[in-house]
Write a structure and sequence with these properties.
Pfam families: TRAM (PF01938), tRNA_U5-meth_tr (PF05958)
Distance between the termini: 48 Å
Family: Belongs to the class I-like SAM-binding methyltransferase superfamily. RNA M5U methyltransferase family.
CATH architecture of the largest domain: 3-Layer(aba) Sandwich
Largest sheet: 7 strands, mixed
Structural class: alpha/beta
Protein name: 23S rRNA m(5)U-1939 methyltransferase
Number of strands: 22
GO molecular function: rRNA (uridine-C5-)-methyltransferase activity
Organism: Desulfotruncus arcticus DSM 17038
Length: 444
């Protein structure tokens, strides 16, 4: 099997990256832009020991689940790879991804995975977008990188093609920001990147990353950005001096933070804080997580990877006491401020890696009856899972953004005396291959 060879492949599934999956001569074949059930003519572009990659040349047999993407640049943009698949089929495939991973990697019963909860309107759901900035042929361009490249896909070069996943107000700010940058002149310094964040209050934060050594030159741009309708805060991010350090955020104009609200709880969002990007599905996700906790009002709860305290404060309204653990100093400050903002007195927050601080607390006698885990895509460190088991918590509620690492950790917890009871996927990112899952894990 050689690169450049043309083959015919029947697609039977998608992988974690949204590529179609087929087989040929005993090897798995990955083909982007295809739909399960299709017969595709493919040219091979990469050949590896156990798998090959290719590009589609012709869809010989078209699936009934194929549709024309709503976005004209979706085939190039790296932001959403599933627009060519009907939304109903996207949901079915994502449920399948979670079931397959939990069964194959986690050794769990796939039947414990409930059908994914989708969105009534799967468009313009993102309250956070990260845009690259380039000057090209005398114009300023804002957009996303094309798939697996550093070439920019433009989302606002004309107002008829905004990003269909971003909140409409963020698209309007992006267009205004680009015009402002163009008016600043060909010699003016530009940020390398702009992040736009929107709270449910309608407040929008603009975060700029300057080119090295040009931090001071963004002050004038900030004075113009703060005048754009909806913009309440303009922040500059300064990169860390070392790879292990934290960068610095500097307020250039407006407020230091914006406010968001979910289910009656208010959250202060600073520039460097992690926060879920889909407010509609975030409320669904947290309600499921809280329901899985089964709190009666007296329990002690641990929340590892707590961020700005969103799930922590949700749980605090139903628990006796909650401890949150977070590595990012700024997020811990926000979490404490959010507890004060909501008048919550039974939540405390601890700064440091969860794999160090949580085991120390467990060793000192902390015995939570419920442990919440909401780790990054890489999943939980082994020390966190071992500490959870050592606490003898009756229940673990795990919120995951990666089915493979979730399954790995479920398997490890099964070896430590726990078993999967139920899993509920939630479609936080329609038209992408990403899927969020909440699982309830019980002590055997």
């Amino acid at each position: 099997m050689l690169e450049g060879r043309e083959i015919k492949v029947e697609i039977f599934d998608i992988n974690h990256a949204g590529e179609g999956v087929g087989r040929d001569e005993g090897k798995v074949v990955f083909v982007p832009g295809t739909v399960p059930g299709e017969l595709v003519a493919v040219r091979l572009t990469e050949v590896h020991k156990n798998y090959v990659c290719g590009i589609p040349l012709e869809i010989i047999s078209i699936s009934e689940n194929r549709q024309t993407p709503a976005c004209a640049v979706s085939n190039n943009c790296g932001g959403c790879r599933l627009q060519h698949i009907t939304y109903e089929e996207q949901l079915r495939l994502k449920t399948g991804l979670v079931r397959q991973n939990l069964a194959r990697i986690g050794g769990a019963d796939g039947a414990l995975v409930k059908p994914i909860i989708g969105m009534a309107d799967p468009w313009h759901y993102r309250n956070n977008v990260r845009l690259k900035v380039q000057r090209r042929n005398g114009r300023v361009l804002l957009g996303f990188y094309e798939q697996e490249s550093h070439r920019l896909t433009i989302v606002d070069s004309n107002e008829e093609q905004p990003c269909l996943l971003a909140h409409r107000e963020l698209n309007e700010v992006a267009i205004s920001a680009r015009r402002l940058m163009e008016k600043s002149g060909a010699q003016a310094a530009l940020p390398e990147e702009v992040t736009l964040r929107r709270g449910s209050t309608g407040e929008i934060m603009v975060v700029m990353i300057a080119e090295n050594g040009k931090n001071k030159e963004l002050t004038g741009l900030a004075e113009g950005l703060i005048l754009i309708p909806g913009v309440a805060s303009v922040i500059e991010y300064q990169r860390p001096v070392t790879k292990k350090g934290y960068g610095r955020y500097k307020r250039l104009s407006g407020a230091e933070f914006i406010i968001d609200e979910i289910d009656g709880l208010k959250f202060k969002i600073s520039a460097g804080s992690f926060y879920q990007v889909n407010p509609v599905q975030t409320a669904v996700l947290y309600q499921i997580a809280l329901g899985y906790c089964g709190l009666q009002g007296q329990e002690e709860v641990a929340d590892a990877y707590c961020g700005v305290g969103t799930i922590t404060l949700y749980a605090a309204r139903k628990a006796g006491m909650v401890r949150g653990y977070e590595v990012v100093p700024g997020a811990v400050q926000d979490a404490r401020a959010n507890a004060d903002l909501n008048g919550i007195k039974n939540a405390s927050f601890y700064q440091g890696p969860a794999e160090k601080v949580l085991p120390r607390h467990i060793a000192a006698g902390f015995r939570p009856s419920v442990i919440l885990l909401d780790p990054p895509r890489s999943g939980c460190r082994p020390e966190v899972l071992e500490a959870a088991a050592n606490s003898c918590a009756r229940r673990i509620v795990y919120v995951s953004c990666d089915p493979a690492t979730l399954a790995r950790d479920v398997k490890r917890l099964s070896e430590l005396g726990y078993e999967l009871a139920e899993a509920q996927p939630v479609d936080m990112f329609p038209h992408t291959s990403h899927v969020e899952t909440v699982v309830r894990i019980e002590r055997k």
